[in-house]
Amino acid sequence: MILANHLVRTFSDGDHQAVQALKLDHFYLSSGENCAVTGPSGSGKSTFLHCLAGILRPTEGTVFVDDLCLSEMKEKEAAVWRASYVGYVFQKPLLLPFLTVMENILLSAELAGRKDSRTEAERFLSAVGLDQYGSKNPVHLSMGEQQRVSFVRAVIREPRLLLADEPTSSLDRDNSAVLMKLMLQYQKQSGCMLICATHDPAVQALFDHQFSMNRRKME
Ligand code: ADP
Ligand code: MG
Asked: What are the pLDDT digits (tens) for 188-211?
């Protein structure tokens, strides 16, 4: 389960001004559940997901994942936990340009301690319409194709917590529907938790739970 209470994350804007990127009173998700996080651009969705992955530490408040208090963890501890527990579909895929698509995926699997993942990777690539793409260099892929590879790179880790940040933002309607169906299918079959930031109402409607962020303004 995930429990977040009284979360605040501020950033300095370099001019000694604090920017409040995230403010949230309470969020709870049971184990094995899925939830869409919605809200306009700038409302703190990405910052929230980063806090849930232990990539960012909240300025105030607590985040629990099962019995682990993420907000108290040291950066290194969080990185070790994240490697085996979290799959993250980033808004910008950032695939490594000096590795092929397949190598990007298999590296992600290995970092999570998963071995012999090639067949599974091929199966997922085919499911997102990218069979034959394994040997390509990611720089030759469109942003939408990279987003789909990014999904495969996340699920190949067999994560207990799958976080997706606007995973369909560069996809057309058909490919968006295929990817979301696959993502929710994976979530149900594996029993992982899935939290997906989106501002697409069609994507939002597919989730069992919805959580709305309020727009934040500079303070
Ligand atoms: P969303 O994902 O909903 O679009 P974000 O979490 O990316 O929102 O950002 C929320 C707000 O915090 C935005 O106004 C953004 O400009 C600001 N913000 C996010 N990250 C930083 C940062 N590293 N430094 C300064 N401001 C930031
Ligand atoms: Mg965002």
From this structure: 999 999 999 998 999 999 999 999
- CB-ligand 1 contact for 60 (6 Å cutoff): no
Nearest CA residue ID for atom 5, ligand 1: 44
User: Both ends of the chain: CA-CA distance in Å?
Assistant: 32
Q: Which CATH architecture has domain 32-59+74-218?
A: 3-Layer(aba) Sandwich (3.40)
Q: Report whether residue 58 contacts ligand 1, using a CB cutoff of 6 Å.
A: no
Domain extents for the chain?
Answer: 32-59+74-218
Q: Which pTM was predicted? A: 0.95
> pLDDT tens digits, residue range 65-94?
999 999 999 999 999 999 999 999 998 999
Q: Is the CB of 50 under 6 A from ligand 1?
A: no
